[in-house]
Write a structure and sequence with these properties.
This protein is of the alpha/beta class and 384 residues long. It starts with 15 loop residues before the first helix and ends with a helix.
């Protein structure tokens, strides 16, 4: 038979995160594997989207998003990141942060270009790079503290290196890159004339007095940084698919053209709903997020520590990588499955976040759940 799948099918297999969600459903367990935030969507955003639908805002938008949302994003960046952004020429609204990253890669990377990532990594970053024919290169963050050195960056650099992917606050480690670390990365990027792609989707989830710093705000970084974020996590609207890329206008137009090709546009009425939220929700809302999720983090971490699954306490985002080496099994998948069947709580095997089979002693737990679900999960875990 001459019919066959494309060579791309190997890297688009279902992620381990979704596999564990399916297994969790089978045992009717509590899903702390997939990062689906189930907290309440702010009323302002729900009302704004509904009103937009009722007002007939249901047609294609401009390829880079509606004017109201681009202006709202620019104002938000100015207020919280101290970035001056031209809403007319430097913002591309896309189908979530994942869509924005894909379009940026299509616009700026050629096949066989190399991009450096820190691991543990988020799997969709790898899949997106491979999808455009790029080659991932890895710098491993060391426990405790998820640290790295400048020499590690230099060691993986080659003449084919084109960029760095930087996720801060990071999924799955919860690392918030410090100003000193970001300066180290920016010095490296400037030295070798590299793009820096960022994923800042968890920018408002930071704990213990830390602050999120957008790499584009560092000296010499504005022109080479593609700042990517979105609203799935902050507003609990993972299914709305509203994200964006911010960059110099010399890159933005082509990123926008690829966005038009792949997605046409993000959903029009949902864009307006998000714009309402950006304009009307102030610092109190975002500060509340950090405080609320800090409480959830502390409860999960203390529970894991009490049952012998030592957590690496996250500095940001809403995931915990915990040491599960005491559980039966030879691999992180076997150990995570044991935990699921023993307690009814699903996690993600650590091997899903490493390229070479590492992470066998780790599992990721997501605490983006309502308080009642968190309490039930902790109760079940204590039965281990």
């Amino acid at each position: 038979m001459s019919l066959y799948l494309s060579k791309r099918h190997d890297w688009v297999l279902q992620s381990e995160i979704r596999n564990m969600s399916i297994e969790c459903d089978r045992v009717r367990g509590i899903n702390l594997s997939q990062g689906v935030c189930d907290t309440e969507v702010p009323a302002i955003i729900r009302t704004g989207a509904k009103r937009a639908i009722d007002d007939g805002i249901n047609c294609y938008t401009r390829y880079d998003g509606i004017e109201e949302l681009r202006q709202a994003i620019a104002q938000k960046q100015k207020r919280y990141s101290k970035m001056d952004v031209d809403s007319e020429s430097e913002i591309v609204v896309s189908a979530g942060a994942t869509g924005a990253f894909y379009c940026a890669c299509l616009a700026l990377l050629n096949p066989r270009d190399e991009v450096i990532l820190f691991e543990p990594y988020y799997g969709y970053h790898i899949s997106t790079l491979v999808a455009v024919g790029a080659v991932p290169k890895y710098v491993r963050l060391d426990i405790p503290g998820w640290t790295f050195t400048y020499d590690q960056l230099e060691k993986v650099y080659t003449s084919k290196t084109r960029g760095i992917m930087l996720n801060t606050p990071a999924n799955p480690s919860g690392k918030v890159f410090s100003k000193a670390e970001l300066t180290m990365i920016s010095d490296f990027a400037i030295k070798h004339d590299l793009f820096v792609f960022t994923d800042e989707i968890y920018e408002h989830f930071v704990y213990d007095g830390r602050e999120h710093i957008s790499p584009a705000t560092l000296p010499g970084m504005r022109e080479r940084t593609i700042t990517i974020s979105g609203f799935s996590k902050t507003y609990s609207i993972t299914g709305w698919r509203i994200g964006y890329a911010i960059c110099d206008k010399k890159w933005a137009q082509t990123i926008g053209f690829f966005n038009d090709l792949v997605y046409v546009c993000a959903p029009a009425p949902l864009q307006l709903g998000v714009a309402k939220g950006l304009f009307l929700l102030g610092s109190d809302f975002y500060n509340h997020i950090s405080g609320e999720f800090l409480t959830k983090r502390n409860l999960i971490c203390s529970t894991l520590a009490n049952i012998g699954l030592t957590p690496n306490i996250p500095q940001g985002a809403y995931y915990i990588l915990a040491d599960i080496s005491c559980l039966p099994g030879k691999t992180s998948k076997e150990r995570a499955m044991y935990l699921l069947y023993a307690t009814g709580v699903a996690s993600v095997p650590g091997e899903a976040f490493y390229h070479d089979g590492a992470g066998e002693n780790l599992a990721r737990f997501c605490f983006a759940k309502d308080d009642e679900t968190i309490k039930k999960a902790c109760h079940k875990l204590r039965q281990l």
